Amino acid sequence: MNESLTPAVEQAMRDAARIAIMPRFGTAAARAIADKAQAPGDSEPVTAADRECEEILSERLAALIPGAKVIGEEAVHHDPELLDGLGSGTCWIIDPLDGTANFAAGTGPFGVLVALAEDGVPVGGWILDPLSGRFCAALAGHGASLNGETWHARASGRDRPLVAVTRLMPDLDRGRLLAALAEQAEVLDSPRCAADQYPRIASGENDMTLFTRTLPWDHAAGIVFLNEAGGRAARPDGTAYRCDDAREGLIAATTGEDWERMASRLAALGETLSRR
């Protein structure tokens, strides 16, 4: 993997955020949202910022690796068959605005996510926080960086680990899970922004996050970043994440030991983190 990709990807992401996202933040344009959800109970807001940011990134990233596929969240909404290309060849994966609902409400967190996959395996991940300017980057086998500095995942050192739990679960199932986890951990709601969760875990602000839905544009970049930083993100059964795997459920943790403890706890509860 060519390490020279990162400066070019970072510049493309910062340019896209500067042009498409930040001028709309806190304005009526940000609040002009549509809902593209396909499944009952889901909410998938989209704004003009999502669409323009994806257009900019798609053009810029395609030029970096000629012949690579480009699969963006908004493009998939219009053409779901694009997902068929995730399992083979070189593929850019874009979430132009993760945390759209937060953005539309005039609050954070929200972010931009770009991943690179080879034959379905995520091998590159880049995460931009347009509000703070924080930039996370990782290439498989080359480690992780935060704002240009080598980064290693840092455990929080709390006596009771801090665990963020997705809200994308049936209320009854989630209530049971929260009650069980609260016996040994401090539990909080995940704010529906994976672009914020993965850096928080790698920084020790959260010890773990539990996800149900694991769409590639939401998770591929963060998984590469966290794993390269020395944390662990994997399916509850221990298998590695693949971009073409439609299963649900993921545990992300600051350390491998924390990951193992949580996986054992979920197994004892019979919890797979799948809504199906």
TrEMBL record:
InterPro entries reported for this sequence: Inositol_monophosphatase-like (IPR000760)
Necessary cofactors: Mg(2+)
GO biological process, one term: inositol metabolic process
Alphabetic keyword roster: Magnesium, Metal-binding
GO MF term (any one): metal ion binding
Residues reported to bind Mg(2+): 73, 95, 97-98, 218
Pfam name, any one: Inositol_P
Similarity field: Belongs to the inositol monophosphatase superfamily.
Name of the protein in its database record: Inositol monophosphatase
